[in-house]
Amino acid sequence: MDIQQRRSYQALTLATLAFAACFSVWTLYSIIGIEVKERLGLSATEFGFLLAAPIFTGAIFRVPIGFLAEKVSCRNLFFWQMLLAVPPLFYLPHIETYSGYIWIGFVLGLTGISFTIGIRYVTDWFETKRQGFALGVFGAGNAGAAITLVLVPFIVDIFGWQQIGYAYGVGMIFMAVLFRLMAPEVNEYYQKQRDSHDMAFHMAPLKDLQVWRFGLYYYFVFGSFLALILWLPHYYVSAYELSLTQAMALTLLFVTSSSMVRAVGGWFADTYGARAVNWTAFWICMVCLFFLSYPPTTMIIHGVTKDVEVSFEVNVWVFTFLIFIIGLAQGFGRASVYKTIYDYYPHHMGSVGGIVAAIGALGGCTLPIMFGFAVDVIGVYSACFMLLYGVLATCMVVMYFALRAERHQKLLRDSIANNFLEQD
Hints:
424 residues, two-stranded antiparallel sheet, single chain, mainly alpha, Growth Hormone, Chain: A, MFS, membrane
């Protein structure tokens, strides 16, 4: 392995670790939110807004950061973004009101922009045929949510709830310093290439409808993944009456498997094509969501001599298995979407990648709110999966017509080319 290869893998490793640390802070409310909900007596809708607060700012700021990452050092951006999360973490133990948690959540949400910065940083280190793998490995930093699921109960058992903010603040300082000292800067060739393009160049792809289609796909594969990280602990506790420790353990299985398989999904996208991987992932999720959408149901059939009672319910183990399969499919889907983006826009990973990442993160912001509203209105816990089923159906319909249109255009181009050849 030559020096350049070593530096590329060093950059990838440190970027992934930094992203995992930021992601753990970004999803911190998934655990402490349960304690806040009980302490403040929040409704399901209010709880959804609480979970959405950090995700909102992490989503909307991905867009300007994506453009900024095209012009300045992503290594420096990553460092300062991590340090920015430290003050609100240290202030977290002093909050006592619902509005206070919302406002601090907005500030903590800035850790969510780490994905956009990291994507732009990593793509400069790998050649085209390795981009799916590299972006998949970096995306495995989503496992940072697993850090929260493991670390928070440990901190609570030893030190109490009030020490969570301090512990995370110290951890972010350590990670920021480690990244600053160890992560290499991109070489001069890529730096000059960035400087040679103006803002109009980076804005140009945003007029393409397919960029927004990619964002819709990412809204499901990442947005629903993020929403489920936030919602599942509460769902397990409420719907199946599990303890918080059991709920976090089962959520940990979902988060870890979905995050780790993303690297494998990147390899599959490189090998078999990103579109094929994405379409397959959608179908797998569709089947699983069909069963998860059914609430516990009891039917009475009036027979000839007696009534027959038929009951249907997805028990906790079947539920966990289906969620596990959805997580794996989403991991493949997240990797394939970004491989598709690189295939179409290799020189716009900051701007296009930032837009798509923002739309995906908005799923993590809007879906928990809609989950809470659906549960309050419909009155069944599985209403959240009915909602996800509808979102996925929309994605699949859009993808189907887009692929059909592309095939039609290709046939038209081939026909025109053949006519020219025949005339010659």
